[in-house]
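We modelled the chain as a single entity of 86 amino acids. Its sequence is:
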Amino acid sequence: CMRHKIDSFKTLPADAMPERVVQYLYKGNKVYYVAMHCCDFYNEVYDDNCKMMGAPDGGFNGRGNGKLPGCFDEATNEKLIWSKPK
């Protein structure tokens, strides 16, 4: 399902397209961190079924939506799976 989400990103205007998608292992499961194009937007984390789990960072205060505190302390095996074309 993340491949479909990435394909949908490719149809967006360049200034609205996320910057990258990074896969991690988080609490034993694959998750996908979607880094948005600007700091005012939440950077979202999705599970392997493309259900949004939360936003560990980003937004106006830079601290996300509070649903994944400590996410980056527990996430391992970082793997870049897509980045916006330059």
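As a brief sanity check on the tokenised model: The chain has a mean pLDDT of 95. The first helix runs from residue 2 to 9.
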